[in-house]
Design a protein that fits this description.
The protein has 7 helices and 15 strands. The longest helix has 15 residues. The two termini are 30 Å apart. It has 2 domains: 92 residues, Elongation Factor Tu (Ef-tu), domain 3 (Beta Barrel); 110 residues, Nucleotide-binding domain of ferredoxin-NADP reductase (FNR) module (Rossmann fold). The protein is globular and about 50 Å long. By secondary structure, the chain is an alpha/beta fold. GO terms for molecular function: 2 iron, 2 sulfur cluster binding; flavin adenine dinucleotide binding; metal ion binding; oxidoreductase activity. Belongs to the PyrK family. Its cofactor is FAD; [2Fe-2S] cluster. It holds the Pfam family DHODB_Fe-S_bind. It comes from Hydrogenibacillus schlegelii.
Length: 265
C-alpha cells in the first residue's frame, strides 16, 4: 500500500480565481508544500475566509497538480463557495491537506475509462496527466445537465483523451444510452479499469458493469464534511464487505473507494 504524506496547513497565495461556466469557478493557488505528495483523488479542506464565518472548511478535490501550483474547480452552491468567489488574486487561503485516499491505476492497466458528471469530472481529470506519464490511454464520458455545464473538456483534449459528452439538455445522458456506449468501448478497447465521480446513478451503472465484466473500478464519493480528519463521523457511507454492511468515513477511508463495495441507496 502506498504511503501517503501527512496533511499540513499552508497559507497559499491565490494566483487565479475566476468563473469558467455559469455555475463553476477555477481556483489556482501557489502551493508551498511538496507537490509530488499530492495524488489524484485527494482533496484539500479550505477555509474560505480568515475569520470563522462560515465556521466549517470546504472540501475541494484536486483538479490539476502543476509544477508549482494546484488547481481546483468548484461549484458555487452555498454560502461557503459564494464567499470563496470573492477571494482575490494575491489573497492567501488557509489550506489543510492533502487529505484522503487517492485513485490507483493498476500496474497492468493500459486503457482506463472515466465516467464523470458535473464537478465530479474535475476530480477524475486529475488522473489524466498521471495516466499519460505511464503511457496509459484514457477514454472519458463527460455528463452534465446542460452543454455549458460540461467541465474539463480542454484538459481532456490537450492529452488526446477519446471523449464523449452527454447532456440532459440534448437527451443523450440517460442510463441506457450511456450503458450501451460503455459496453461498446470496454469491448472495443479492452478497458480493464474504470473510475467514476459526480453521480450515484452513473456510479451504480458502472458498478454493475464492473461486476459483470470483472473490471477494477473505483469511485470518488462526494459528501458534506465537517472536520475532514475522520474525527466527527459526519461523512459516513455504507459499504458491503464480507456479506455485511459497514460504514466508512469518506474523508479518511475515502474519498476513493472500491466501487464494487459501495452501496447506493
Amino acid at each position: 500500500m502506498e504511503v501517503l504524506a501527512l496533511p499540513r496547513i499552508s497559507r497559499s497565495e491565490i494566483l487565479q480565481n475566476e468563473p469558467v461556466h455559469e455555475r463553476y469557478w477555477r481556483l489556482v493557488v501557489a502551493y508551498d508544500g511538496a507537490l509530488e505528495s499530492v495524488k489524484p483523488g485527494q482533496f484539500f479542506h479550505v477555509r474560505v475566509r480568515d475569520v470563522h464565518d462560515p465556521l466549517l472548511r470546504r472540501p475541494l478535490s484536486v483538479y490539476r497538480i502543476n509544477r508549482d501550483s494546484l488547481e481546483f474547480l468548484y461549484r458555487v452552491k452555498g454560502a461557503g463557495t459564494r464567499t470563496l468567489t470573492r477571494r482575490m488574486r494575491g489573497d492567501r487561503l488557509d489550506l489543510l491537506g492533502p487529505l484522503g485516499r487517492p485513485f490507483v491505476i493498476p500496474p497492468e492497466a493500459r486503457d482506463i475509462l472515466l465516467l464523470g458528471r458535473g464537478v465530479g469530472m474535475a476530480t477524475l481529470a486529475a488522473l489524466v496527466p498521471e495516466a499519460a506519464r505511464r503511457g496509459v490511454h484514457v477514454y472519458a464520458v463527460v455528463s452534465a445537465r446542460r452543454l455549458n455545464d460540461l467541465l474539463a473538456l480542454d484538459l481532456l483534449a490537450a492529452y488526446g483523451v477519446r471523449c464523449r459528452a452527454v447532456t440532459d439538455e440534448e437527451g443523450t445522458s440517460d442510463v441506457e444510452a450511456v450503458r450501451a456506449l460503455l459496453e461498446r468501448w470496454i469491448a472495443e478497447f479492452g478497458i480493464r479499469a474504470a473510475y467514476t465521480c459526480g453521480s450515484k446513478r452513473l456510479a451504480a451503472l458502472l458498478k454493475g458493469l464492473a461486476q459483470e465484466k470483472g473490471l477494477f473500478a473505483q469511485v470518488a464519493l462526494e459528501e458534506h464534511m465537517a472536520c475532514g480528519l475522520g474525527v466527527c463521523h459526519a461523512c459516513v457511507a455504507p459499504l458491503e464487505r464480507r456479506g455485511r454492511i459497514e460504514y466508512a468515513k469518506v474523508c479518511q477511508d475515502g474519498p476513493v473507494f472500491d466501487l464494487k463495495e459501495v452501496v447506493f441507496t
